[in-house]
């Protein structure tokens, strides 16, 4: 087995749903020994979205793809033995990562102030929906809610229609990456000083950072930018940046060449009612809907192939709007190796998309499929020098 970046690092993962498991899984792919502590009640994601065809034996595709490269210990943290086993695991760990509601770990006696007494060098990473010390700390937090509250949804969609949330759980994934960066930096600091530390990221703050460019415009230029009614895909972009329907689908147009490139595009599409005076830096920005509407009308009767062959020679960037299934079938994506086959007695045979990071000397590994509930409880307890605990302290052995 090749050497990995995090050989010898153990992670105790008190994680559920998406953001916590994604961060923990990435650490596992970097070579850490990640041990997920799951309650007998189970991670909601384990069965929240089942495969309708039974390919995954009734478990959720979401769970199998975000809980790879982790061992699974099932402990009832509300029992004395279960809590003692959790503390023994934490004492042997380099990193603890958790994304429970604020205050839950503290109520269990597993908050950072208690844990650093038994493991001063631990990196204690917390993920929450909102600032755990702020006034919003007890609000319900989930990707869709954060998209709404942060303003992401308000920036998406046509101006004459409702806001549209992004069709992926982008805030869960982006928040997980903030914590991952923090953990790696904290491990480097510990290597140099011996000091552990607590770190945290919350989904709301992460969503604001995700929109740092857009926020800078709102904070400094225009407080309430208006979405385009003609389909310009960004509140701050000029025409023709956006999605355009064609006879057999849709394409996107993106130009960073300013007026000269827009003039080439208009000429190539033979849009006679747009003159030279209609295409200025001011007008492609502030009359963008009018310009985009005329471009859209010219493209609508064309096939995708006809539209792209007309657009590409102008230097305007263009691409077809594909379904996710079409993207996953693209040979250029398949050849990267990012889609991998996984087989396990628990989940059967399935495919997953793995981490995109490539490292020459310490490659990422895909060595463990998502584990069954409590699959490694006996194994891990034995490593900790613990005898099997009482039945009510674990899910099943």
UniProtKB/TrEMBL annotation:
Keyword Transferase: yes
Keyword RNA-binding: no
Pfam families: CoA_transf_3
Entry-linked SUPFAM superfamilies: CoA-transferase family III (CaiB/BaiF)
Gene3D superfamilies found in the cross-reference section: Crotonobetainyl-coa:carnitine coa-transferase, domain 1, formyl-coa transferase, domain 3
Record's keyword terms, sorted: Plasmid, Transferase
Record-given protein name: CoA transferase
Organism: Sinorhizobium chiapasense
């Amino acid at each position: 087995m090749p050497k990995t970046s995090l050989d010898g690092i153990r992670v105790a993962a008190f994680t559920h749903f998406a953001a916590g498991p994604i961060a923990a899984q990435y650490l596992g792919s970097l070579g850490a020994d990640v041990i997920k502590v799951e309650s007998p009640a189970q991670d909601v994601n384990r069965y929240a979205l089942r495969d309708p065809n039974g390919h995954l034996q009734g478990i959720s595709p979401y769970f199998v793809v975000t809980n790879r490269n982790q061992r699974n210990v099932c402990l009832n943290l509300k029992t004395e033995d279960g809590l003692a086993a959790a503390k023994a695991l934490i004492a042997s760990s380099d990193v603890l990562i958790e994304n429970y509601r604020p205050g839950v770990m503290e109520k269990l006696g597993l908050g950072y102030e208690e844990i650093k007494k038994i493991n001063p060098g631990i990196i204690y990473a917390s993920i929450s929906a909102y600032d755990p010390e702020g006034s919003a700390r007890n609000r319900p937090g989930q990707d869709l809610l954060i998209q709404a509250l942060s303003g992401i949804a308000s920036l998406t969609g046509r101006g004459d229609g409702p806001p549209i949330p992004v069709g992926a759980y982008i805030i869960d994934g982006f928040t997980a990456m903030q914590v991952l960066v923090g953990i790696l930096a904290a491990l480097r600091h510990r290597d140099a000083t011996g000091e552990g530390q607590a770190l945290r990221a919350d989904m709301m703050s992460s969503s604001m950072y995700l929109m740092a460019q857009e926020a800078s415009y709102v904070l400094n230029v225009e407080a309430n930018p208006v979405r385009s009614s003609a389909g310009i895909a960004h509140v701050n972009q000029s025409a023709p940046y956006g999605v355009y329907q064609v006879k057999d689908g849709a394409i996107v147009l993106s130009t960073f060449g300013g007026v000269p490139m827009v003039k080439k595009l208009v000429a190539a599409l033979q849009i006679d009612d747009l003159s030279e005076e209609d295409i200025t830096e001011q007008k492609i920005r502030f009359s963008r809907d009018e310009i985009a509407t005329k471009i859209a009308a010219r493209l609508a009767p064309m096939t995708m192939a006809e539209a792209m062959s007309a657009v590409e020679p102008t230097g305007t960037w263009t691409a077809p709007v594909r379904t996710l299934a079409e993207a996953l079938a693209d040979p250029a994506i398949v050849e990267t190796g990012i889609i991998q086959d996984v087989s396990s007695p628990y989940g059967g045979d399935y495919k997953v998309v793995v981490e995109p990071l490539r490292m020459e000397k310490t490659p990422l590994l895909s060595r463990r499929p998502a584990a069954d509930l409590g699959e490694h409880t006996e194994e891990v307890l034995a490593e900790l020098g613990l005898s099997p605990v009482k039945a009510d302290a674990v899910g099943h052995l």
